[in-house]
Amino acid sequence: MPGLIDVHAHLDEPGRTEWEGFSSGTKAAAAGGITTLIDMPLNSEPSTVSRETLKLKTDAAKGKIFVHVGFWGGLVPENALNSTALEDLLDAGVLGLKSFMCPSGIDDFPMTNITHIQGGLSVLARYKRPLLVHAELVQESDEKEDAVSDAASYSTYLRTRPASWEQAAVRQLVSATEETRAGGSAEGAHLHIVHLSDAGSSLDLIKEAKSRGHSLTVETCPHYLAFSAEEIPDGDTRFKCSPPIRDAANREKLWEAMMGGDIDLLSSDHSPSVPELKRLDEGDFLKAWGGISSLQFVLPVTWTHGRQYSLAFEKLASLWSEKPARLAGQKLKGAIVVGNHADLAVWEPEAELELDADHPVFHKHPSISAYMGRRLSGKVVATFVSGNLVFKQGFHATAACGATILAR
């Protein structure tokens, strides 16, 4: 099939290579059939918010990447209302921008408000590149809730980030995208909501906005489709992420929305850390770093769970290749057609893999992945990047031959 394109991954280099890094992260990607990654502007140090910090990224990637890697830039308060600064970042080659509507957990990547987001859209309209948004908006009434009764219980963490946070953020974003419609002042801009977790009111707002012609798309992630809140064991902080994994009924609605086309694409949101930050010994969901480590496993996870929903190969390719390529502006990727880049994943749908200690995993810290210990179907046997065989049967090419992708 076409190589997978993951538009949402944190490789953490430069500055936090002890968390992941370009070499280990892209090896894991290749082992999972991913041929292109778009790297998030955080959690590297510094964050990618300027021409200078983008150069640090591209320099750090040289000679280390086994798949193609592009970069999102950061929309933060210091550049959001400064069109010259944003234009300089976009001219340097980022494929689009990313912002948070809640604290990101990274000091040099502060949250934006809706005015910042509107400012970003007005600049992006001229570049025809997307703005990706983490859509959670802290609600005062919920923030004051007493949620410290049992920090080892997943339900405690879940109460601290209710679906109302996503709903409030999406409501503001839908209002901001009114001007992206044909004839609007921000026509040409596009807003993409990352890692949707709430399949209730948040999704309803998105569907309605799309029907009115807003330039808006949404993704979800395999962990929201594979897991449910009810099955997360006490103290198993490997499952902590934001927005959080919600209940089984919500998971069913996410599958229904994705199979029906209301959710546009999938991404990993691979967000690793050092094991100490997951606080597995303490089992404290409130103090542990949030993020699901998943890069190598997304194809078999999607396929394993998708078969019970009659997921077809064509739909799989649309979710993981065609539509991600479109979001990232990669016209020569995402499909097997004459003239496209020869980015290919070769896999065996019926072959099973046991994610145990003997399974070769290339993430820097396999132990923090919530998928370890699972039995999955769909084994990647080979991955080609621009026609080059970079992974086969557990082994990588001797030389990293991926290229950095910059917008022109």
UniProtKB/TrEMBL annotation:
<dbReference type="InterPro" id="IPR050138">
    <property type="entry name" value="DHOase/Allantoinase_Hydrolase"/>
</dbReference>
<comment type="similarity">
    <text>Belongs to the metallo-dependent hydrolases superfamily. Allantoinase family.</text>
</comment>
<dbReference type="GO" id="GO:0004038">
    <property type="term" value="F:allantoinase activity"/>
</dbReference>
<dbReference type="InterPro" id="IPR032466">
    <property type="entry name" value="Metal_Hydrolase"/>
</dbReference>
<feature type="domain" description="Amidohydrolase-related">
    <location>
        <begin position="1"/>
        <end position="390"/>
    </location>
</feature>
<dbReference type="GO" id="GO:0008270">
    <property type="term" value="F:zinc ion binding"/>
</dbReference>
<dbReference type="InterPro" id="IPR011059">
    <property type="entry name" value="Metal-dep_hydrolase_composite"/>
</dbReference>
<keyword id="KW-0479">Metal-binding</keyword>
<keyword id="KW-0862">Zinc</keyword>
<dbReference type="Pfam" id="PF01979">
    <property type="entry name" value="Amidohydro_1"/>
</dbReference>
<keyword id="KW-0378">Hydrolase</keyword>
<dbReference type="GO" id="GO:0006145">
    <property type="term" value="P:purine nucleobase catabolic process"/>
</dbReference>
<dbReference type="GO" id="GO:0000256">
    <property type="term" value="P:allantoin catabolic process"/>
</dbReference>
<comment type="function">
    <text>Catalyzes the conversion of allantoin (5-ureidohydantoin) to allantoate by hydrolytic cleavage of the five-member hydantoin ring. Catalyzes the first step of the ureide allantoin degradation followed by the sequential activity of AAH, UGLYAH and UAH which allows a complete purine breakdown without the intermediate generation of urea.</text>
</comment>
<dbReference type="GO" id="GO:0005737">
    <property type="term" value="C:cytoplasm"/>
</dbReference>
<protein>
    <recommendedName>
        <fullName>allantoinase</fullName>
        <ecNumber>3.5.2.5</ecNumber>
    </recommendedName>
</protein>
<dbReference type="InterPro" id="IPR006680">
    <property type="entry name" value="Amidohydro-rel"/>
</dbReference>
<comment type="pathway">
    <text>Nitrogen metabolism; (S)-allantoin degradation; allantoate from (S)-allantoin: step 1/1.</text>
</comment>
<dbReference type="GO" id="GO:0050897">
    <property type="term" value="F:cobalt ion binding"/>
</dbReference>
<comment type="subunit">
    <text>Homotetramer.</text>
</comment>
<dbReference type="InterPro" id="IPR017593">
    <property type="entry name" value="Allantoinase"/>
</dbReference>
